[in-house]
Amino acid sequence: MRGSSSFPKVTIGLDLGDEVSRTCEVDRRGKVVRRDAVATNREALAAYFGVRSRCRVVMEAGTHSPWVSRLVKELGHEVVVANPSEIYGPRRRKKRNDGIDAEFLARQGRADTQLLHPIEHRDAKVQAHLEVIRARDQLVGARTKLINHVRGAVKSAGGRLERCSAEAFSLRAAGQLPDALRAALLPLLEVIGNLTKQIGAFDKQIESLTESYPATQKLRQVKGVGPVTALTFVLLVETPERFRRARSVGAYFGLVPRLDESSGSSPQLRITKAGDELGRRLLVSAAQYILGPFGPDCDLRRYGERIASRGGKNAKKRAAVAVARKLAVLLLQLWRSDRAYDPHFNVDAMIPAA
Question: Do the domain assignments include residue 5?
C-alpha cells in the first residue's frame, strides 16, 4: 500500500483537547515533518486543514470528534476516528501527553488504520435526534433518584408510601408524608412533578420524531418495544444494511459474551458491553418486560424461559440478556423485510443462512 498513489503523502495525528488540540504530521517514510497546536474551534481548524492538500487525519473518539470529523471531511481529507477503548485497552500508556498521543495516532494511521478499530460518527441530524432521547433519559434518571430518596426518607421515619407509578408519585405521595418530613420532602415532590411534565413533553416529541423514521412502526409490532426503544434502535443502527450477518447486531450493542479462548480453555465470561449503553439498556428493559408477569406469550418469551429454567446463579439475568440479544436480531430482520411480525414465529427462521 505504501507505493500506491492513493496512499496519502502525510498522515496527521490530531489529539483533540477541550480548548487546544495538538497535531503531529508524519510523511510516507515515517518521519515527523511538523508538530503544531491549534485551537479547538471551527475557525481555527478550518484554517489549519483548509489550505492542506488531501491527507489522512486520525483522531480519537471523544466529545469533540463528531463535529471535528465532519468538518475535516468537508474540507476534503480522509478521516479515521479511532476507538480508544480498543487501542488502549482498560489502561492508558504510562508515558503520555498530548504531543505523544498525536504522534501515536499519526504512526498508527500511517501503518494500518485497522489497528485503530475505526468507528463512524453519525449524521448531524441523527445525532441531534439522539440527543432528544438522551435528554429524556437524564430526566427519567433524575426523577427515579428523587423518588427513591423520598421513599427512603419516609421509611427511615417509620412510614411507608403506597406503590404507584412514577407519573402519579408526586400527587399520591403528597398526602402520605409524615408531618415531621413535609417541610423537607414537599419541595422534592414539586420537582418530581415538574420532571414528569417535562418527560411527558419529550415523549410527545419522540412520538412525533418516529414519523420521520417509518421503520419504527415495523419495530413497534413487538409488544414491549415502544417509541423510545424503536427510535433509539433505528437511530443507532442508521441503516439495516450495516451488518452483513443479522446476528452481528447483538455484538454491536455489546450483548455477546467476551471471548478469551486459549489452549482448549473457553471460560464463560460476561457480555462485552460494547457500543451504546442506552441502546443496550433499552433492549434489556424490553426483554425484561417480555419475560415479566405482563409479557406476551411469544417465541422470545419461551426462549428466555428455557434459559431461566436451567437454574444456576443469575439465571434470570442471563435469560434477559439472551432475549435482548435475540430481540435485537428480530428488530433488524423486521426492518429489513416487509414481513408482519408473528409473535409465535421462530425468530431464528427469519435469519437467512450466512
Answer: no
